[in-house]
Amino acid sequence: MLNFALCDDNLSFLNNLEKTLSKLILKNDFNAKIGFKSTKISDVLDYMKDTKVDVLFLDIQLKSDINGIDIAEKIRDTNKDIYFIFTTGHLEYAFLAFQVKAFDYIPKPITVERLEKTLNRLFADVDFASSNFISLNSKTYINQNDIYYIKRDGMKLVFKTNQNTYESYSSFNKVSSKLPNNFIRCHKSYIVNVNNISHIETNTNTLFFNNDTKCYIGPKYKNNFMEVINNEFIANDLESSNNA
Question: What is the CATH number of domain 145-241?
Fold first, then answer.
């Protein structure tokens, strides 16, 4: 699910933008939410310290000591994948906006048609190969980095992430070819993202993640799984326990 944040110093515009975006997300069944909005960029930056933002709608001329372009440059230093969509009535900033790899630049006043066109382009652009997203269908995308594990459940695959659980009719064979090498088969029913493992109990063959989420290591896969963990992913500083 894509997490949107909105920032504009005009409260009326901000509320209208949120309302219009919400309607378009619902209308098009986009897998997205508006996680935060504020008239103050400092509030948005505080929110982003603890919460991943995938798309930021940002005014350029803010009532701040720093403009939206400069803010985007600073954010880009730590979040390479974020989509910036600038909203402004000052067309002279268009060139500068694209210097910070903005996805779009929408002049005010924004029309519903123009905003919907941008959203359609955005979701078309969010693909697995270039943006670390797995596409479950034409409207639903999951960031690989958010996945804890993928579980086979009959004809379906269950994708457990740090926030939600998704289901898709697919197979391990189809999804495995699209996954990076930090995804490892650890059980006949599980493929795990080793980057998100917080703790391993080898005596119970249990893998733990945040929020008490867990899955299991199958006897058939244990030796190979632990060898890969020890040899290739030791840098992750995973805790391993043999406590009974």
Answer: 2.40.50.1020
